[in-house]
Amino acid sequence: MTSRRLIRAVLVAGSIGLTAPGAIADEVNVESGRRFAEQNCARCHAIGPAGSSPLDPAPPFRTFAKKWPLESLEESLAEGIVTGHSDMPEFELSPRQIGDFIFYLETIQQK
To answer: pLDDT truncated to tens, each residue of the chain (111 aa)?
Structure first.
């Protein structure tokens, strides 16, 4: 893990309440974030570093940081994302899932 990613993992984990000693580096897991995206989001969104979204209006996850600061997703994910269209399910994630998911999103962003 690069030092930038480790610092971000610490900030994300700390901001969502993962404060158990030694838990920060162990708790934020990119693979868990990818699995969450695959299981819950891939039917509409392109969840990887390439490819088109299966549902045309659904933005690819790799472009999220161009539209929204990723850290701004933390509160929405914790409170439950509710959208104005019926295709997207409502989500309410645990602090660990939020950290994993946002950390995964960071790894696939287009520069």
So the answer is: 444 444 444 444 444 444 443 444 455 799 999 999 999 899 999 999 999 999 988 999 999 999 888 888 888 787 776 655 667 777 778 899 999 999 999 999 987
What is the residue type of 26?
A: D
Query: What is the SS3 assignment for 31?
Result: helix
Residue among 9, 46, 8, 3 nearest 28 (CA): 9
Q: What is the CATH classification number for the domain harbouring 101?
A: 1.10.760
CA distance 109 to 111: 6
What is the Cα–Cα distance from 49 to 61, expressed in whole angstroms?
8
How many domains is the chain built from?
Answer: 1
Closest CA to 4 of 109, 97, 107, 110: 107
Strand ranges inside 2-98, DSSP E: none
- Domain span holding position 40: 3-108
